[in-house]
Amino acid sequence: MADEPPSSLRRALALLDALASDDAVAQGGWGVNRLAAHQGRDKSQVSRTLRILADAGYVERDAESMTYRIGWHVFALAARAADQRLLAAGAPIIRRLVEKDLGERIHLSVLQGNEVLTLLTETPPHAVQTVAWAGRLVPAHNTSSGRALLIDLERDELDRLFAGVRFDVGGPNAPRNIEDLNQRIVLARRRGYATVDEEFEPGLVAAAAPVRDFRGEVIAALNVSAPKFRLGARLPFAGQQIKAAADELSTQLGWDGLRHRSLAARSAVPA
Amino acid sequence: MADEPPSSLRRALALLDALASDDAVAQGGWGVNRLAAHQGRDKSQVSRTLRILADAGYVERDAESMTYRIGWHVFALAARAADQRLLAAGAPIIRRLVEKDLGERIHLSVLQGNEVLTLLTETPPHAVQTVAWAGRLVPAHNTSSGRALLIDLERDELDRLFAGVRFDVGGPNAPRNIEDLNQRIVLARRRGYATVDEEFEPGLVAAAAPVRDFRGEVIAALNVSAPKFRLGARLPFAGQQIKAAADELSTQLGWDGLRHRSLAARSAVPA
DNA sequence: TAGCGGGTTGCATTTTGTGCACCCCCTATT
DNA sequence: AATAGGGGGTGCACAAAATGCAACCCGCTA
């Protein structure tokens, strides 16, 4: 890191960082003086800079306490760029998984209804291929990607999603009904990754883990699949590798590792 | 909205907005020239500003295409910007509304000036959804979410908020002026939920109810929207469902069902 | 009433951002 | 091999914006 010359823009951005600091968040935002002290700047210019940031929606002010916090506009930016970033940040992670960690085929996919749409694929000898938005759909219930994507869903939500879906397709070990599927999802939830063993196709095993965005929502899944004779024995290891990579990708999307939906549901409201 | 005087900071932030635009995202990011043209600025300064933003992590550059896109830092900030309680408690409720109660698209949104910013969107599984609404701004006066968010405002406050806003956009039944809007808000206030019938778009109906925090202040709105031929007949029912869910969410945020805005004004201090 | 914490504004100063011209690099085209 | 054009970066003189100090407003309280 070369020592960056200061600039007004850099100083303005530093204000955002300060407002996103643990202390500032914990205290429900900071006022002009506190912020100026923290940044070692004069309060006047901090006041003026904040007004510009507030006009643009990057910060907002609590009317009563006069404190500033990060504004909704930042949220809007992130939400709109999330998909783009998923692909951009996913590609190198997938490449690394293929080349170094696992040496088997890796996919990045999203949920489309009750099916799984693959966005990125990389096979050991080849390069990353971006499958266009009209890629092939596979079922969600008998694939590891699918179960990773469903990992936060409760039983009743599964009922609704899979109402009318036929479970009599796929490999020999595919789930036979929704309850069966639910139990396998519960297992995946406990372990943090999903596995399938000859469910989608005979002779094929796979592991997958969910990718979460900055809201904690599951938005995609990373998965590895390979012939059972090659990957079968080390499937748990592969699952952990995939989970680690998925968490890394989630982190790059702003996930802080705390907001699980399953947790959010029951932890009501701390001060 | 008064014309804000330009400032270098404002111009820098505008670059971020441009990078989050539909076009830029769809094209995998924009290069310096394209950005400069879009902003009507000289490419030299755009280049320099982007370097600062890149150093700070607010944008990042694709090594091959040389295009910039929104960077990890924005996602990190967004994780803070999202009101954790609102989103954490809101997600499961929205999910339930989609899966069980209504089976149509549900949004959670907040007021941003006189527009509505959508934070969470949940789509029923059968519908093909390509447009991501999260992070998008829509008008407040001709949407049900907007009217739910404005439900506590008095006539004079509406005058101030919508001064200078053009009412000649939207669907066939959109309010034609502020008085018209006010009457529809009064109706929503009496019923506890707002509805629109082909106001925002032809063929679209929607219902929304306000979410209140512990002070009784309206901080968000839950809303359902669907094609008229599907939801039109049971719109009042949907409105009541939405209201029940919004009240439940409000309760989880500490609302006791009694406090209203008049009281909230003087009950100051948040913890 | 004076003092204090917190915030904003006026204004002279100067740092910064700006735009122009120019240069680099790559790749089609002739 | 020469050339044109797209995309991106840099040097420099100039104008504009940020800066910091002091003054001021406001509400609170000792």
Descriptive account of the structure:
The structure is a homodimer of 271-residue chains. Chain A has 271 residues and is α+β, with helices and mostly antiparallel strands. Chain A has 2 domains: 8-70, Arc Repressor Mutant, subunit A (Orthogonal Bundle), CATH 1.10.10; 80-252, Beta-Lactamase. Helix content of chain A is 45%, strand content 18%. Chain A has helices at 8-19, 22-26, 32-39, 43-55, 72-101, 144-149, 155-161, 178-191, 228-231, 235-252, 261-266, and strands at 59-61, 68-70, 105-112, 115-122, 129-130, 137-139, 194-197, 204-212, 218-227. In chain A, strands 3, 4, 5, 6, 7, 8 and 9 form a 7-stranded antiparallel beta sheet that branches. In chain A, a hairpin with a 6-residue loop joins β1 and β2 (68-70). The longest helix of chain A has 30 residues, at 72-101. The first copy, chain A, is elongated, with a radius of gyration of 23 Å. The structure holds a DNA duplex (30 and 30 nucleotides).
Element layout with pairings:
Two copies of one chain form a homodimer.
Chain A: H1 8-19, H2 22-26, H3 32-39, H4 43-55, E1 59-61, E2 68-70, H5 72-101, E3 105-112, E4 115-122, E5 129-130, E6 137-139, H6 144-149, H7 155-161, H8 178-191, E7 194-197, E8 204-212, E9 218-227, H9 228-231, H10 235-252, H11 261-266
Antiparallel strand pairs in A: 1-2, 3-4, 3-9, 4-5, 4-6, 7-8, 8-9
Helix pairs in contact in A: 3-4, 5-10
Chain B binds a DNA duplex (30 and 30 nucleotides) through helix 1, helix 3 and helix 4.
